[in-house]
Design brief:
Largest sheet: 2 strands, antiparallel
Radius of gyration: 21 Å
Low-confidence stretches: none
Order of helices and strands: HHHHHHHHHHHHHHEEHHHHHHH
Strand order of the largest sheet: 1-2
Strand content: under 5%
Distance between the termini: 6 Å
Number of domains: 4
Structural class: mainly alpha
Helix content: over 70%
Length: about 400
């Protein structure tokens, strides 16, 4: 298997292609030359805000810098083409409708695969299932439940495109999810679509735009009649998206405001719950708060907060969220120069959510730094690097 370039390596290649020296790129991106050098050579990880700043200077997308985890023909590439075709034919499904009870079960299965970070398995069933769900919704006319199932499937599709580094496909999927949600006249479905819309801005490093989407969606949802758990889950999830966007924008005030409002909503729920592909509750809010400390340059606070979470992850969280917890803990520990602790956290991430850990940009960045520093001979580290496409 051929190894794939990391973000730092891609930055070096793109910088040279633009005819830029390290000093010029560092100055334009607002970082030190020393930091840029360490990113390019694998001694420091490239963080999302740094990647966003460099991408803007180099006139490329953040996806171009993060790169693809795997090269060459693969089942994943073929299935992504199938998904792209199904999304393109959103008004012209080739598949026939299926009975409502069976469709509901299939959509629940897709949501479970997404929550379990089992991306390849989800990719195998999603293109055909999208067609069947859409055909069934058209046959049902204006039935809100039928269109809600279509919107949920597009939410699953967004997760795939986002995690597999397909930003253009993710953008197209969000527009389809919004279209399906609008057929439901359901504020919950529209809030879930807005959550993913803000995610496209997050992936592109356009944090201010994403925050504007979040604030608009919060205002719209607050004016709806939603009550109880449905209100808390959808509104709370929007605030958690705001936490990520604000912390990556280095806006500590906005970060704390979204966290405060999320914690207040989480207090109304007995535990973490999953609805419309949104996970919300006290456990997930704690994970987002921990990640915000990492983004705001406070790894010591993140590491301190991680102790009870790593020992006993919140029981209501699925593998996609627990895996992300361990990745953020690895980032915090690496920033504190706790190399053994960072490797331990990555191993936990690979154990609980292997497909997520293989493709997540921050997992790959931490892994690359550990691999470059002085641990090349460590068998478990080498194994993870090979699985992530960083070594042969």
């Amino acid at each position: 298997m051929e190894s794939t370039p990391s973000a730092g390596e891609n930055i070096a290649v793109l910088r040279k292609a633009r005819g830029l020296g390290q000093r010029a790129l560092a100055a334009s991106a607002g970082i030190s030359v020393s930091y840029l050098t360490k990113i390019e050579t694998g001694l420091r990880p490239a963080t999302p805000p740094v990647i966003a700043g460099i991408a803007k200077v180099l006139h490329v997308t953040t996806a171009r810098i993060n790169g693809q985890p795997f090269l060459g023909p693969s089942e994943q590439a073929d299935l992504l083409d199938d998904l792209r075709a199904a999304v393109r034919r959103y008004r012209l499904p080739r598949e026939g409708e299926i009975p409502p009870s069976r469709l509901i079960a299939e959509v629940r299965r897709a949501a479970d695969l997404r929550a379990g970070a089992r991306y390849l398995e989800l990719l195998r069933i999603l293109p055909e299932l999208l067609g069947k769900a859409t055909a069934s919704a058209f046959a049902a006319g204006g039935d809100a439940t039928a269109w809600g199932l279509v919107a949920n499937l597009y939410g699953c599709a967004y997760a795939l495109a986002h995690r597999l580094g397909q930003p253009d496909l993710a953008d197209m999927i969000v527009s389809r999810q919004t279209w399906a949600a609008q057929q439901t006249w359901n504020p919950q479905a529209e809030a879930a679509a807005a959550w993913n819309e803000a995610g496209t801005f997050q992936s592109a490093g356009q944090y201010e735009g994403g925050l504007a989407v979040v604030e608009r969606a919060i205002a719209q949802f607050e004016s709806s009649r939603a009550q109880g758990a449905e209100r808390a889950i959808h509104l709370g999830s929007l605030h958690l998206r705001g936490v990520v966007l604000a912390s990556r924008a280095k806006d500590a005030t906005a970060t704390q405001d979204h966290l405060r409002r999320a914690w207040a909503l989480a207090a109304t729920l007995p535990g973490d719950q999953l609805l419309n592909n949104l996970t919300f509750g006290a456990g997930n809010t704690a994970l987002y708060e921990l990640a915000s400390h990492v983004e705001l340059g406070k790894p010591d606070r993140a590491a301190e907060m991680s102790a009870p979470l790593v020992t006993a992850p919140p029981s209501g969280l699925k593998p996609n969220r627990v895996g992300r917890l361990y990745i953020d803990v690895a980032r915090a520990r690496l920033s504190l120069k706790d190399l053994a602790g960072a490797e331990e956290a990555l191993k936990a991430a690979f154990q609980v959510a292997p497909q997520l850990s293989e493709v997540h940009p921050m997992s790959r960045e931490v892994l690359r730094v550990l691999f470059v520093l002085h641990q090349r001979a460590r068998p478990e580290l080498l194994s993870m690097a090979k699985r992530a496409g960083l070594a042969v």
